[in-house]
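Lecture 7 notes: from sequence to structure.

We start with a single chain of 319 residues. Read the sequence below before looking at the structure.
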Amino acid sequence: MRILFLTHPYPNYVPDLLLHGLRKLMGANVVDYPRKDCLYDGVLGLGVCTPDQRCPGWFQNDHGQIDRSDIWHKARSGFFDIVVSDLRAIGQLSSHLDTWPRHSVVIDGEDKPYPLSPGPYVVCRRETDGSDFSIPLPMALPEEIFNWIRRYDGLAKRYSIGFLGSSHNDTRKRFIEALSTHYPDALLYSTALPRDDNPCPDGRVGRDQYYRKLQQCKIVLSLPGAGNDTFRFWEHAACNALHAAASAPLYIPCDFDSNQDIIRFSGLDELRKKIDAIVHDHHRCKEQIRRSRDKLLTFHMTSKRAAYFLERVGQAFGT
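Now the structure, written as C-alpha cells:
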C-alpha cells in the first residue's frame, strides 16, 4: 500500500501523530508532501515551540528515502492507494487536481468540528462522539514520548495531584484553584498561553522538567483545553500515577474504563470523592496504574492508532 499524506506547515497534533504512526507501520510508503520540516526538527503539536519544548528524534529522519517527485502526476494516475489530507491542506487538491482521488481522507484535527460538506472523501475527526458520520480519530502517544516519561518512573512522589498547563479560559483556572484548597500538597499551575511575543510565560517549564514533575505526583489531572481531546491526556496515561480526567463527549476506540483504568469525573465534588476513596488503597492504586498503561500500550500508541485508521477507512472504502 502507498499513501500520500498532504501536510500543512503549521504543527497540528492529530494529523502529525497519525503521520508518525503510519510511518512507523509503513516506512517510506507513506509520503508526507510537502515535507513537514517542523516534525523532523522535533516539534510536536506546539505552534510556539521553544528549544526546551522540542522532542529531538520523536519523528524519524527520512534519510532521503521518501520519494516526493512527480507527486501530482502520481496522484492523478492512481499511484497512491489512499490520499490523506490535513483539513488545513485540502486546498492543494483543488489547486492541482480536477477531481479528488478515488480513496481520499480528510483529517479534521481542529479544536471544534469543522463544517465539511458531503463530498468524495471520508472524514476522520478528533472532536466527535461518533454520531456525525465521521470516523473518530483521537490523538495518541508516540513510543518515543512514552519512553521519555517512563524514564522517571522511580522518582519519589512529592505531590498528591499534578496539573501543569496553560489556561485557555477562566474555567480551567478556577477549577485548579478550587482543587488546591482541598489538596495543599498538590502541584497545580496554570500559566498564560505562549505567544510569539511571549513564548515562555512565567511558570512554564521545559518538556523534560514537565515530565519529571508529573512523575512526582500520585495523581495526574486532565482537563479540557481548547478542545476536549488534549495531548496532555495521553501523556498522563503514560505516567506512573493515577489518571483523573474530566468526562467529555468524545468517542475513544477501546476507551479507558472508569474506576478500572482511569478516574472519570464531572465536577469537583465527584473528583474529591473518588480520589479519597482510592488514594490510600495502595494495591488498588498500583493495579489501576498498571491497567491504564497496559491499555495505552495495547490500543493508544501512534502505531496502534494508525492501524485502527487503516482498518476503518478500509471499511469505508469497501476494501
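The chain has a mean pLDDT of 95. Keep this in mind for problem set 3.
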